[in-house]
Amino acid sequence: MSVDLSYLAVHALFVFPPILVLAWLGRRRDDFWWDRRTASGLAIMIVLAVAYTTPWDNLLIAEGVWWYGEGTVVATIWHAPIEEYLFFVLQPILTALWLFHVFQTPDQELWIPWNHRLVGALAGVALGGLGWLLLGTTSTFYLGAILLWAGPILGIQWAFGSTALWTVRRTILIAVAAPTLYLWIVDRIAIGLGVWVISDTHTIGLTLLGLPIEEALFFLVTNVFLVQGLILYLWTLERLEGHPVVQNARSRLVDRSDAG
């Protein structure tokens, strides 16, 4: 199929518009969660997304797991096009803005039973271990790379706050489902137009309405990363602000300021 769309055009047509719409709607809603805490959380997620995804993404491109159509990218840094790095920034913004429309703080104290933490950590280790095993076969290489890459992050998040995340599971489902479904559609369009090409050799051949199952899994786990990470970050800040130690420290600072 002839290429009628560039990678940058994909961003311009499909990624920037929903970001602008969600931001505009947020300014018009009183219950939109946007303050210094949510802004700082989003900034942290962007930094982590770029830092953690960059080496993984470049290594998979070098391995030939996917490549880009001729003339569809402006330039590359390492093996990845600059539009790819831009997406590492845009996806967290898109997902976070949607989350802040439906956000709910977990009704759970910071203390979590140790066995809950252990189960969460082991679940992440199990996913990573499965991914490691799948790397050994060419057809499951992409699937294994995703699971191996996702396991440590999910293990950390679940070990830290699985109990809290369970209390807002409906919010997580809604917050993850909408951007994931949307990005599946965008990805399918881009693949269909040849903006990027997924290797048949490195995938198992299962598709979701033409979208390789590995691509679907990638967008699912990245949005789970973002939604869980932001919820845990904001939940932690909220609980710490109400902690007696923090309140006493603030009181002492106020007293010193008044005394000065």
List the helices and strands and how they pair.
Elements: H1 7-28, H2 36-63, E1 66-68, E2 76-77, E3 80-81, H3 82-102, H4 114-134, H5 141-167, H6 169-192, E4 196-198, E5 207-208, E6 211-212, H7 213-241, H8 244-259
Antiparallel strand pairs: 1-4, 2-3, 5-6
Characterization of this structure:
With 260 residues, this protein is mainly α. The chain has one domain. The protein is 72% helix and 5% strand. The strands form three sheets. Strands 1-4 form a two-stranded antiparallel sheet. A two-stranded antiparallel sheet has the order 2-3. Strands 5-6 form a two-stranded antiparallel sheet. Helix 2 (36-63) packs antiparallel against helix 7 (213-241) and helix 5 packs parallel to helix 7. The chain is globular and about 55 Å long. The chain starts with 6 loop residues before the first helix and ends with a helix. The model is unreliable at 243-260 (pLDDT under 50).
What features would you highlight for this structure?
260 residues, two-stranded antiparallel sheet, two-stranded antiparallel ribbon, 5% strand
